Structure formats: C-alpha cells, structure tokens
Amino acid sequence: MSLPQPSLPDRGFFLGCLLAGFALLPGRSAAGVQVDAAAGEEAIHAAVAALPPGGGVVELGSGTFLVTRPIILDRDGVELRGQGPGTRLQLAARANCPVVLIGSIHTPVERVVRRITVRQLTIDGNRTEQDYECYGGPCDERNLTALRNNGITIRGAADILVEDVLTRRARSGGVVLEKDCSRVRLNRLESADNEFDGVAAYESEDCEFTHLNLHHNRSAGFSFDWRFVRNRIADCVASDNGSQGIFMRDSRWNTFERVTLQRNGEQGVFIAETTELPGTACRRNRFIQVVITGNRAQGLRINDRSCESNQLVDSLVRDNRLEDISLAVPGLLEIQRPQPGQ
Q1: Which CATH number goes with the domain that contains 142?
Q2: Alpha-carbon distance 45 to 150, whole Å?
C-alpha cells in the first residue's frame, strides 16, 4: 500500500521581509518560516499561527527548544521540520503535556485535520520530571486530562506524515494515533524509553508504518487495542521492550511484513479480544516473513478462541523462552511455509 504524501506549500512566491518577527530563510516563500533555538518555544507557536490559510513550513534550527505547552498543529497543510537529530524539542519539568499534538486539542475532536508533516527532529518527553501521564492531571476526566502526554499525539487526522523522527522518554507513549485517524504514515521513526508503548494506534485505518525501530519502552513496542483496521506495518523492529513486541486487540485485516520481534519481556506477538466488549476479536491479520526470536514468554500467543483466521507466512518463530507458538485452541493460526529450524 502506497499512501499519498502530504502536499508541500507553493514555493513560488518570495518575500524578502520579516514574518511575525522571525527571519525568512533565503529564497523561501512567504509560507516558510525559520525559527532558531535561541528564539525559544513561543517563536514556534507564533510562526505556526502566522502561516497563511493554505498552510506552510515552519523550519526549526539546530539546538534545544524547551517546551512548556504542546506545539499544536491543527490547521491543514502545515509542516514542522527540523535539521535532523540536532533539533530537539524537550518537555520542560512538570509541563505535564504532549510535546507535539497533530489535530484537535478538544475531546471530542472538532474537525479532521489534513496534510500535516513532522520530520527531521528529536522529541524528548523528559518523563522523570513529569507528575502525570495525562495533560495537567489524572487521566480520563474532562477537558485536557483526556489527552495523554505522548511525544507525538495524532488525533482525528488524515494524510499525515511523520518521518525521520526520534521520540524518547515520554511520560505516556512515543507516538499515539487516536480518535479516527486515516492514511497516517510513520517512516524511519525511532521510539525508545517511553513509559508505555513505542507506537500505539487506536481507531486507525489505512495507515502505513515503515522502517520503525521501537526498543526499550517500558510496555509494548507496538500497541493496537481498538479498531485498528487495514493497516500495513513493514520493515520494522521491536526489541527489548518491557512487555510485548506487538500487543493486539480489536485488530482486523492488517498486514505485517518483514517485522523482527526479539528479546521482549513477554510475548513477541500477543493477540486477544477485549473480553468485556463483544466483537473485538483479532481476525484476518497476516504476518509475512516475520522473525520472532528470544522473547521471554511465547513467541506468538493467540489468547482467545474468537481470534481466528490469522496467518503466519514464510516466517521464523524459535528460541522463545516458554513456547514458540501458543494457541488458545488448535487451528486458530494458519501457518504457511514455516522457515527451517522451528
């Protein structure tokens, strides 16, 4: 599955002046603004607000930006771009908020936000200096506390690209999709040392996750726990995470290709349903050319008999501590052409 890339703004109109107090890059259009680290967090908020109605590019210079409130990208056609790993957004102590929020801050979301890009930067959630998992207080209450303090939160959004990003040390998850997302692409993402999952996706369809490295997160590498449908995960590694490489419930018609799951604290893949919610079984997921080795419990565990019609194709599952393939009842997993040695 190949997803459309978010459109970049027209670069044909040049302006040799200042926009919102921040110098434009030489030769860049009025829809592109550069913000230096010395200008600080408020310069980022001002630059995003100053973009024209059609959107544009906010380019961050190298250095560390200390973030005290979320950088919210809730307008169509906006790109937030750094210079690579040397551009760092670091959450301030006790800020207790997401670092980057793509979509609406309100719950329920007010509108679908489209064509947002975040690329070429590092996000540090500074989790040991935060008091709460959720924005401003205990979770799942009204207003801001419905938001987890993730490195990147994507909610109610479509045609999104996150690429060449390192997200680490978030108080909740590294990157989390929720509230009906579609056509979100994560590419060349590293997510590590987050309190919960490296990447989590709920209410997400037709998304593509490629070339991800999810490691040393305290919970799962991947977590797909609610209406995760028709997505593709390819050429990824989930290793040395505290629980599963992949945790799945209520997930259907997804394809996993050339994914390596190794040395995770529990299962390489854990497939189940939410027992208190009928109709949430995992069905018709395909695992193609995956490698599942060295996990501390089962390599692949299907925990509920309702999770049927899943396939394992051309894959290697071996040397897992408790069991390589574990099924709630026989026949739940169709295994095609297992690799030699398992």
Answers
A1: 2.160.20.10
A2: 19
Report yes or no on 166 lying in a domain: yes
Query: Residue 284 sits in which domain range?
Result: 24-336
Q: For residue 245, how far is the Cα from the chain centroid?
A: 14
Asked if residue 67 lies in contact with residue 92, where contact means CB atoms within 8 angstroms, the answer is yes
3-state class (DSSP) for residue 37: helix
Structure tokens at 184: 């979100």
pLDDT tens track for 98-114: 999 999 999 899 899 99
Position 210 in a domain: yes
Instruction: Answer for the pair 58, 81: CB distance below 8 angstroms, yes or no.
Output: yes
Residue type at position 190: E
CB proximity list for 157: less than 8 A, separation 6 or greater: 102, 103, 112, 113, 114, 116, 181, 184
* Per-residue pLDDT reduced to its tens digit, 278-330: 889 999 999 999 999 999 999 999 999 999 999 999 999 999 999 999 999 99
Q: How far apart are CA 67 and CA 90, in angstroms?
A: 6
pLDDT in tens, 170-212: 999 999 999 999 999 999 999 999 999 999 999 999 999 999 9
